[in-house]
Amino acid sequence: MIQSASWEPELCLSNSFSLHDVAAPVAPLILASPHSGRAYPQSFLSQTRLDLTSLRRSEDAYVDLLFAAAPSWGIPLLCAQFPRAYCDVNRYAWELDPGMFRERLPEGSLTNTAKVRSGLGMMARIAGPGRGIYRYQLPVSEATQRIASCWLPYHEALEGMIERCKSRFGTCVLLDLHSMPTIPHLRLPDIILGDLHGASCAPEIVEGVAHRLGAQGFSVGRNRPYAGGYITERYGTPDRQVHVIQVEISRRLYLDEPTIRPSPDFASLRARLGNALSGIIGLVSAFRTYRKPCDNRCIG
After folding, report:
1. pLDDT by residue (tens digit) across 190-212?
2. DSSP 173-206
3. What CA–CA distance (Å, rounded) separates 167 from 174?
4. Which of 45-54's residues contact partners 24+ apart within 8 Å by CB, and which partners?
5. Pairing state of beta strands 131-132 and 172-180?
6. What b/e sequence results for 269-278 when a residue is b if at least 16 CB atoms lie within 10 Å of its CB, and e otherwise?
7. Taking every pair of C-alpha atoms in the chain, what is the biggest distance, in angstroms?
8. What is the 3-state secondary structure (H, E, C) of 220-272?
9. Which CATH code of 2.60.40.1470, 3.10.560.10, 3.40.630.40, 3.40.50.2300 fits the domain covering 10-245+263-285?
10. Which of 4, 168, 236, 258 has the highest count of CB atoms within 10 angstroms of its CB?
């Protein structure tokens, strides 16, 4: 039973992530929720011109709670505690807008990517519908501190989970869990699976995941408009037996988006996702190693 207090954001940053690990995992599967953190540092709130509700519109709100039962089924779950508006671990660490800072960013920073231009670098410039977050320019030391306290610990934990999974099973499947907002005049599927158009995961795994979600009544799309982000690109290496799927769940299925509160459908959605996850566990349990299909350049 989830206590009502679990719905509310915390106004502190106690830990950078929560790792619900399991001693004896049942399958080569791990779950991660990088954007559902809701512990807002007071120092961050003092820097912003926005109220807390406006900041929270960038969260993948309560996705961690949708999958909270996974460890009891033998599947580890990693969740960021910090909010996405504070530090986005689905970006390169130094993927930043130079206009946000007083000093020059370090050499090698990515300052002109599509995400930076749209205001959504590792430290977002905007939240919600294009509203500027900060009252003033920040020192570069602020980015350094967020990388050290949030970005690096999260990725170190995720890398460790992947290596332990590979060591135990010979392969690893990561479901990178997200949610997507309702977009006016655009009806998206219930769930979109992103595999970088076939680059980050073996096709039979993606097709199997889609099938098991479809069996629970979900409409499932592939790659459009969400093909995957930094995590999918960095870790999805099927030739090395690491398969990553970005899973985008429509917020209309479980969230009252204006208030950022769970809707009456939250419990039923959690149950349906749990049923699908049970089938996915069976799918990946039967999957061991992947070999890229041979094309006409292969010899022999």
Report:
1. 999 999 999 999 999 999 999 99
2. EEEEEEEE--BTTB---SEEEE-TTTTSS-HHHH
3. 15
4. 45/11, 47/133, 47/134, 47/135, 47/136, 47/138, 48/133, 48/134, 48/135, 49/132, 49/133, 49/134, 49/135, 50/127, 50/128, 50/131, 50/133, 52/9, 53/259, 53/260, 54/127, 54/128, 54/131
5. unpaired
6. bbebbbebbe
7. 65
8. EEECCCCCCCHHHHHHCEHHHCEEEEEEEEEHHHCEECCCCEECCCHHHHHHH
9. 3.40.630.40
10. 236
Q: How confident is the model at residue 8 (pLDDT cuts 50, 70, 90)?
A: low
Cα–Cα nearest to 87, from 139, 137, 153: 153
Which amino acid appears at position 288 of this protein?
R
The DSSP output letter for 118 is T
Rounded CA separation 54/1 (Å)? 28
User: CA 242 to CA 121: how far, in whole Å?
Assistant: 26
The pLDDT tens digits for 20-79 are: 999 999 999 999 999 999 999 999 999 999 999 999 999 999 999 999 999 999 999 999
Ordered by start, the domain boundaries in the chain are 10-245+263-285
Extract the tokens encoding 135.
């009252």
User: What CA–CA distance (Å, rounded) separates 208 from 252?
Assistant: 24
pLDDT tens digits for 116-174? 999 999 999 999 778 999 999 999 999 999 999 999 999 999 999 999 999 999 999 99
β-sheet bridge partners, residue 32: 78, 176
